[in-house]
Design a protein that fits this description.
This protein is an all-alpha fold. The protein has one domain. It is built from 12 helices and no strands. Helix 1 packs antiparallel against helix 3. The longest helix has 39 residues. The relative contact order is 0.18.
Amino acid sequence: MEELAAVLAIIAAVAFALAATLWQRASLALGIQPGEPGGLYRLLGSGVWLLGLAAQLVGVLLQGAALDRGRVAIIQPLLVTTIIWAMPLGYFLTGQTITRRHVLGAAIVVAGLVGFALYGDPAGGNDNAPGSTWLAAFLVLGAVAGGLLLFVGRVGPPGKAALLGAVTGILYGVAAVLMKPVVEDLHVVGLTGVLESWEVWVMAGAGLIGFVLQQASLATGALVASVATVSVVNPVVSVLLGALVLQERLDRSPAWHAVVAVGALGVALFGAILIASADDHAPNPGPDTQSSGDPSVPAPAPA
């Protein structure tokens, strides 16, 4: 069951990477700026952007199926692989520059995730927690997200992409952990019962706000920085909430397994940070795209 959940999580990561790349392609082709009023409305008319939305929905469904079969602490870290899939997709679809540092970071991410998968075996935990526990966690995360947003206007495009991506990752992490009790309740009380719970609406709200912020992050043109920060912060928040709220614990038989698993996850996150901090030159749409205004026109690959 855990093996199937892991496979579903990795396929979900591919879908999320494809969605982010297509969204950025559409934003660049239409010349949309971060935070532009009406920018999202303009994107709704782009076939490429809608294709990205379909990919995102597929990813969410696969993520939900994975969380239904496995623990948050093992499923969410696998979504860090979104960075790896986004690099070749960004190279071919939006002309992103891929450096040796990006490749090195990807290799470190893979090595760390392999170690975590081999030695991290989350056990125990609850499917839900008291509302007061959730509220305390939300207040802390809300304060962190608000603090990050204060600096968005003070940095350049890569920094703006990273900050907005980090806040997006926080919101997606909250949505992912809430998805666990939602899918569990779906088996017990059905769709009607789930719609009566606060968890499903907070999950939807966090996901929707994160979705809007991700569009602004991708509109900066810094695809790798955006995807990397989303992919790093999302699992970190998810694992923390899984441990502190749902009481999930790593395998401690023997005790050194848990130590190695945490260390391996730290290595994977270091690789993701290495990717995010690499020089990320925001591409411009190709001449054909600029002249036609049609995001479906292929952008030229970098020389």
